[in-house]
Specification:
The protein is an alpha/beta fold. It is built from 6 helices and 8 strands. Helix 6 links the parallel strand 5 and strand 6.
């Protein structure tokens, strides 16, 4: 191999490591650390409450408390998907440059306080983070997650039509990518049921820059297809596994 080719190859490797792999791993480590720190409290939430309608799977006072102290701007927005309106929680980073956006896919418990607090922590790290309530409009009262109790919410999430889920997530990805503070790059992160949906969404939206999958539940609704993403899969111990059938790694 000629000296010029060796120099070119080494330069390409350096560009890959500094411009692509390092930012992706940094983001993966951050999200996995946040998830690991919060999981114990999240899954062992105190079931006692003064409210008769309280759902211990979606209501966590510690997460509410953290979120209430956040200095970052946050808001609820309604994202249109055909005739549907997807209620979505958005938190904005305090940065001077345009930021990458993260779509957060909730667990089987729906839009919980923990999901909102995690979304805020992603914004703290410099990302525009948006978490859609995929049960929007599906509740018995026409609402979303808050319409369900701890048993029915799991059944409702599990029964969501796959095409509707994909449509909702596509609409949210388009919405967040066009926000004034966004740089147009969108990644997705999902937990448990949402981890399985992350696989599915990534194979249906080629423009995603990365997909982060945390403790996914078993699912037969996704396949690798011709995905051009590198998937980062995480166990509860936050071990990172790089899946092999990927075609290339896109820059975050």
């Amino acid at each position: 191999m000629s000296k010029s080719k060796i120099i070119t190859r080494n330069a390409s490797r350096k560009a890959f490591l500094t411009g692509i792999l390092v930012p992706m791993i940094a983001m993966a480590v951050f999200v996995s650390r946040v998830a690991a720190q919060d999981l114990s409290s999240h899954h062992h939430a105190d079931a006692s409450s003064d409210s008769v309608n309280s759902n211990p799977e979606t209501t966590q006072d510690w997460a509410k408390d953290r979120l209430s102290k956040s200095p970052r701007h946050r808001e609820w927005v309604k994202v249109k998907n055909g005739n549907r309106e997807v209620n979505s929680f958005v938190v904005y980073p305090e940065v001077s440059k345009k930021a990458t956006a993260v779509v957060v896919i909730h667990e089987i418990f729906g839009m919980s306080d923990w999901v909102q607090q995690l979304t805020d922590e992603l914004a703290e790290a410099g990302y525009i983070a948006i978490a859609p309530d995929l049960l929007s409009g599906m509740g018995p009262k026409g609402g979303g997650t808050s319409d369900f109790d701890s048993n029915s919410v799991r059944q409702a999430v599990d029964a969501l039509p796959p095409d509707q889920i994909t449509g909702d997530l596509n609409a949210v990805a388009v919405y967040v990518s066009k926000l004034p503070g966004a740089n147009g790059k969108v990644v997705v992160a999902g937990f448990c049921w949402g981890g399985s949906q992350t696989f599915s969404f990534a194979t249906n939206r080629a423009s995603l820059k990365a997909a982060f999958v945390f403790y996914p539940s078993p699912s037969t609704r996704w396949h690798w297809g011709e995905s051009r993403l590198r998937f980062m899969a995480f166990t509860p111990a936050t071990t990172c596994v790089s899946m092999q059938p990927c075609r290339r790694l896109s820059m975050l």
